[in-house]
Request: fold
Amino acid sequence: MGDLKIQKLADFILNSKYTVILTGAGCSVDSGVPDFRSPQGWWKKIDPRTVATVEALKTNYDLFRSFYQARIQHLDGITPHEGHRVLSRWEKEGSLQLLATQNVDGLHQASGSRHVRELHGSIRSFRCHNCQRHASKEQFMLGEHCSECGEKLRPNVVLFGESMPEEEWARSLEAVRKAELVIVIGTSLQVYPANQLPRMTSGRTVLINVEETGEEDRFNLFIAGRAVEVLPAVEEAIKSTHTLNNEKR
Reply:
């Protein structure tokens, strides 16, 4: 990771009055959630164009439902890691103003974060695709149809070809535009339009990711590493800086 880079990010956070975080699949990998584009990711096992689409929901519902059933079942027993908890603590301390995520697993909320904007929806809630009536997880997992109109049920995730939830996007964009610091964690920056958010701030930008994405030059700072390791290290650097400053007084 590099101690100098860790300290630099700690200083960025300490000097920022408005910080926004954007997380992607890599932030959940350390909790045991598969990502999408790695050799072990979901999309290496199945073509998303055949399953995570409205077309699949309408014409091949058994495949659509079995794919999301598998993802939902995989989340059983999955819990937030220390990196998630660090972000939650920063929010409570007032160091983090908004967390926008491309993840649908709800791990940020499970760790205690409250100011979360889910850009791609949530796999933990369900509705009828036709009339939008709320449905339960049990109804979806059992293959039941809507109790109101009899149509197909689905998770509240954004499928390929669908637009992001308007309010989630608008609030995230508003926050990014007034941010003094935007930290991007665990994303390949390949998914539009979420990948445009870091470009829409006049503040400092930081990228934390296991591997290079080709976008590093667009950021003020790049730290190669996992969220579960980098974020606790930054938290410790912030605490050490506070201690040092208090000793100087």
Remarks:
- The longest strand covers residues 121-128.
- The two ends are 31 Å apart (CA to CA).
